[in-house]
Structure formats: structure tokens, C-alpha cells
């Protein structure tokens, strides 16, 4: 299936990659950084297609390392080569690092106010929406065909419902899914 | 010994960078064991606070190691710990990205992309479920999560606005 619903925007400069990932990095309260990145790169900026983002995500998860840092490197390289990868990685690490240090320095003081915890809980609840909406968006495209739909359902059931180790599920499902896609693609010439 | 602290930091975090298969969460128990029990860098209570802060803060939760480095031996140790946990695995991804780019458009690559997309979509949905389970605040939290999901899907609203609104609602109701 074609992977472009809409034409993509021209690749951003390394500087734009840095500021963009920095903005995502320091605003992604409540976890689910992946959802923020998909929102930014696929939906808002249209830098890469959804399939490219998702396959990059799957690879970032399967490789060692922190996947929320692996993915910016992957996307940055795809868009702007080595400098793009460096810019995106630094963007998602350095500014949030300064924030976390500032928070740590202020932690004892912040702890005095119960409002701090309550506000963060509310922020985290709202942040779920970002992850879920990106999940739904991705799923809607994948369930149009039977095999991707089954793969998606099995991965969700294994990781989400049965709480199997993610790496095990990916190690089984990813090669199987790719092999099927390859056989089908090879049969009909891609 | 004090002069070995930088080497110790490298010795602990560089292997963990390459062992963190399946995301940063996978190695947090080992970070805990090394920092508290093995090396005695920080106390149990400090670790718990560091973990809470790095989860609360935006950005990668693995920045936990920045805090540990900082508390062990100041800013240089913080920077070193951060580099140690991120750089080795980053180089690996970088190498793969290069190979990937060289073969861009190859039929097998299309197959890999098409095959991995539903896997990743399943992972995002499973991750959302995990966030739902972890949410504190019960039905109110779930209602806010669903409302913000709908808002992001149906409108062009800036997600940050929704985050602020979520915090605001919690403060109004529970504060």
C-alpha cells in the first residue's frame, strides 16, 4: 500500500530538528514521549510518513538503548543525515536534562505543596490522550488489511493485556510480519 | 576511591546502555542495584526520590542517571553518566540508520516498513493501556484522558494546552 496519504513537507534543517525535539522533550509531561514525537513529526510537521515513523519506532524498540532517544536519531538521520541525528538526539536529551536537574533541585521545596502532586497527576492523565490518539490513528490505517490487523491485535494482546515482555513479543511478531509482507510484495512486484 | 568515581560511572552505565533492550525501563532495577547496593552512591530514599522526579519530569525517564551522577560527584559526573547511558546505544542506532539510508527504496526495505508498522501500532496502543493503568485519580483521570484523546483527534489543539487543562481540572477538583 502506498505510504503517503498527503505529500510530505521538505526536510527540516538540523537546527529546526533540534528545536523541534527540544520542544517535544520539555513539554512531554506524563510519559508517552513516543506519542508526542509522532504528533510532531507525522501529524503537525509532516516530515515523514506514518509507515516510516512506525517502522522506525519498532526498530528503536527492538534495538538496545532508550527507545525515545533511538527514535529521534533514526528520524534525524533519515531527514538530515548525521547532523540531523545529532541535533535530534541532543534536542531530546539536553533540555529535558536541565529540566530534570532543576526539578530535583526544587524537589524538597515543591514537596511542601500537595498541589504539586495533584497538578502532575492531572497533567499525566491528559498526556494519555496524546499516546492513545496516536495509537488509534496508527491502528486505523493498519486494520484496513487483514494481516496487519491480526499482527496489531496480537501485539496489543501480548504486551498490553497479557503483559508479556515487549522484547519477546517483538522478536516473534516482527520477523513474522515482515516475512509475510515480503512474500506478498515479492509476489506482486513492488 | 574518589579519583575512580568517573571510571566507576562508565563501568556501570556503558554496559547498561547496551543491555537496555526493550526500552530504558528494562534496566532501572539494575541501576537501582548498582547505585544503592553495589556502589553505595546514594541512599534508597534518594533513589526513590530521583525515580519519582525523572518520571514526573518531561523527557526520557532514563535521565534518572543524570541525577544519580549529579548526586555522586557533581556536574561532570552528571554529564558523564548521561553520556554513558545514551551514547553506546545511540551509536548502534546511528550505524543502522546509515545502512538503512544506503538501501533506501529497496524492496526488502518496503517489506520491513510494512511489516513493522502494525507491530509498532500495537505497541503504542499497549503503551497507552499501561499509562491508563498507571494513572492516579481514578475515573476523573480516565475521563480527562478520553477527553484529551478526542480533542487531539478531532481538533488541531496544541497538546500542551490539554496538559495544562488536565492539571487545572485536578487542582480545581482535588486541590
Description:
The complex is a heterodimer of chains A (190) and B (175). Chain A is mainly alpha-helical and 190 residues long. Helix content of chain A is 79%, strand content 0%. Chain A is globular. The mean pLDDT of chain A is 89. Chain B has helices at 5-19, 28-38, 44-56, 64-102, 107-134, 138-154, 159-174. Helix content of chain B is 79%, strand content 0%. By secondary structure, chain B is mainly alpha-helical. The model of chain B has no long low-confidence stretch (mean pLDDT 90). At the A-B interface, helix 1, helix 2, helix 3, helix 4 and helix 5 of A face helix 1, helix 3, helix 4, helix 5 and helix 6 of B.
Q: What structural class results from the helix and strand content of chain A?
A: mainly alpha
Shape of chain A: globular
Beta content of chain A comes to under 5%
Ends apart, CA distance between termini of chain A: 10 Å
DSSP strand count of chain A? 0
Estimate percent helicity of chain B.
Answer: over 70%
Query: Could you tell me the mean pLDDT of chain B?
Result: 90
Q: Would you identify the regions of chain A where 5 or more consecutive residues have pLDDT less than 50?
A: none
Largest interface: A-B, 108 and 96 residues
Distance between the termini of chain B: 47 Å
The shape of chain B is flat
Series of secondary-structure elements of chain B, N-terminal to C-terminal: HHHHHHH
Q: What's the Cα radius of gyration of chain B? A: 20 Å
Mean pLDDT of chain A: 89
Hey, roughly how much beta strand do the residues of chain B contain?
A: under 5%
- Rg of chain A from C-alpha positions? 18 Å
What does the largest sheet of chain A look like? none
Amino acid at each position: 500500500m502506498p505510504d503517503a496519504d498527503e505529500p510530505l513537507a521538505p526536510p527540516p534543517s538540523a537546527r529546526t530538528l533540534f528545536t523541534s525535539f527540544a520542544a517535544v522533550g520539555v513539554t512531554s509531561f506524563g510519559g508517552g514521549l513516543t506519542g508526542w514525537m509522532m504528533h510532531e513529526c507525522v501529524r503537525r510537521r509532516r516530515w515523514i510518513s506514518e509507515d516510516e515513523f512506525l517502522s522506525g519506532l519498532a526498530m528503536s524498540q527492538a534495538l538496545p538503548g532508550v527507545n525515545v532517544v533511538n527514535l529521534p536519531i533514526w528520524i534525524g538521520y533519515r531527514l538530515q543525515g548525521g547532523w540531523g541525528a545529532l541535533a535530534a538526539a541532543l534536542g531530546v536529551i539536553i533540555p529535558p536534562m536541565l529540566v530534570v536537574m532543576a526539578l530535583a533541585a526544587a524537589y524538597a521545596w515543591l514537596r511542601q505543596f500537595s498541589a504539586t502532586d495533584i497538578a502532575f497527576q492531572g497533567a499525566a492523565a491528559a498526556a494519555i490522550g496524546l499516546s492513545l490518539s496516536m495509537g488509534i490513528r496508527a491502528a486505523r490505517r493498519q486494520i484496513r488489511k487483514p494481516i496487519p490487523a491480526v499482527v496489531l491485535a496480537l501485539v496489543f494482546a501480548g504486551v498490553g493485556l497479557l503483559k508479556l515482555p515487549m522484547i519477546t513479543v517483538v522478536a516473534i511478531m516482527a520477523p513474522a510480519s515482515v516475512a509475510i509482507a515480503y512474500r506478498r510484495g515479492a509476489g506482486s512486484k513492488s | 576511591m574518589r579519583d575512580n568515581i568517573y571510571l566507576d560511572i562508565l563501568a556501570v552505565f556503558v554496559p547498561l546502555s547496551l543491555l537496555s533492550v526493550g526500552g530504558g525501563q528494562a534496566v532501572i532495577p539494575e541501576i537501582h542495584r548498582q547505585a544503592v547496593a553495589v556502589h553505595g552512591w546514594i541512599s534508597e530514599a534518594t533513589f526513590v526520590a530521583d525515580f519519582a522526579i525523572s518520571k514526573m519530569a518531561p523527557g526520557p525517564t532514563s535521565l534518572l542517571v543524570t541525577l544519580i551522577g549529579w548526586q555522586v560527584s557533581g556536574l561532570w559526573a552528571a554529564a558523564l553518566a548521561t553520556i554513558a547511558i545514551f551514547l553506546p546505544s545511540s551509536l548502534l542506532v546511528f550505524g543502522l540508520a546509515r545502512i538503512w539510508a544506503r538501501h533506501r527504496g529497496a524492496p526488502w526495505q518496503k517489506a520491513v516498513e510494512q511489516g513493522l508498522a502494525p507491530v509498532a501500532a500495537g505497541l503504542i496502543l499497549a503503551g497507552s493501556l499501561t499509562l491508563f493503568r498507571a494513572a492516579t485519580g481514578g475515573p476523573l483521570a480516565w475521563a480527562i484522558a478520553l477527553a484529551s484523546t478526542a480533542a487531539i483527534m478531532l481538533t488541531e489543539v496544541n497538546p500542551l494546552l490539554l496538559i495544562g487543562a488536565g492539571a487545572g481540572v485536578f487542582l480545581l477538583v482535588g486541590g
